Amino acid sequence: MQREPWAILKSLVALVLIALCVVAAQWQYHRGVDRHARNSMIQAHIALPALPLDLAKNTPNEFEWQSVRTSGAFDASHQILLRNRYSEGVYGFEVLTLFTSIDNQRFWVDRGWVKAGKTATSPPVVASVPSGTVEIIGRLRLDSSLPKGSFFALPESGTALVRELNAQSRLETESFYIDLLSGSDQSLTPAVTAQLPELSDGPHMAYALQWIFFAGLVIYGRILIRRAR
Fold this sequence. Notes:
Elements: H1 7-46, E1 51-52, E2 67-87, E3 90-101, E4 106-115, E5 134-142, H2 161-169, E6 176-183, H3 204-227
Parallel strand pairs: 1-2, 4-6
Antiparallel strand pairs: 2-3, 2-5, 3-4, 5-6
């Protein structure tokens, strides 16, 4: 029987390729599992009733996306417009205003989306905040709730929004912020609230199967090369 040239080397290359495919498949699988768990947590927390912020402020990571309520006052002198925010395909901004609770906690409140002005130099129309003490209800958000530039609910690569806001305003606030849903004053209810993440599990499981398929192709190809000698 004629011996296959470089048989050992070919088999080693095939084994390396198979190992890489298996590693890639495992990576995609675990990403899919993490993403599904994250989405399930968000869905569960969104469905819960609002609780006092005092119960969540010390461990906000355990209450992420759950509705909370608190009382305090807005500081209209510290307000920031986030660019590149869209609602139904229309360009606009999200309005974040500083809020100080009655127990002197300071944090940012996302008051929802507003449409951009008619021109690049025209400011958007932003509703003023009521003066004095008000009660607000909103979803608790962490500093890295969402990945930069996306509304997919992923656990990694957060945008550190609070730190960016504080750096721009030269302020120190809590590590969380709140997406406003409603308030004791009717004017506080946003016309367009901050968007929920798109709770899709994504293509990770399909990619994992795809890598397993590639590993099978490597095995099949090695067998064909062996038979064609």
